[in-house]
Amino acid sequence: MAKSKTRKKAVYTPPVRAEKAAVSPRWLVPVMLAVWLIGLGWISTYYVAASTGSNVPLISDLGNWNLGIGFALIIVGVVLSTKWR
Q1: For 51-79, what is each residue's pLDDT tens digit?
Q2: How far is it, in rounded angstroms, from Cα 11 to Cα 1?
């Protein structure tokens, strides 16, 4: 039986990394955590104020818009977390 010709494979050389690894700015993590906590605090304050019937100056005036504000702050925190390296 005839032998098949063997192919010569080129040796794999990984590409050279020209760029330095990106580092996130120092302010990113504290701002991200602060925005998450403020959003969570905003929603919880709204629920506590609504359930007890107390009158919190800004929160009582906004009504159900407080949920939108709180969730928007939490979403901003999630968007900032995608920039973290």
Answers
A1: 998 888 888 899 899 999 999 999 999 99
A2: 30
Rounded Cα distance between 32 and 74, Å, is 9
**Collapsed DSSP state (helix, strand, coil) of residue 61:** helix
Q: Which residues of 1-28 are buried (b: 16+ CB within 10 A; e: fewer)?
A: eeeeeeeeeeeeeeeeeeeeeeeeeeee
Q: What is the number of other CB atoms lying within 10 angstroms of the CB of residue 39?
A: 20
Q: How confident is the model at residue 10 (pLDDT cuts 50, 70, 90)?
A: confident
Structure tokens that stand for 40 in this block: 């969570």
| pTM as predicted | 0.72
Neighbours of 31 (CB within 10 A): 13
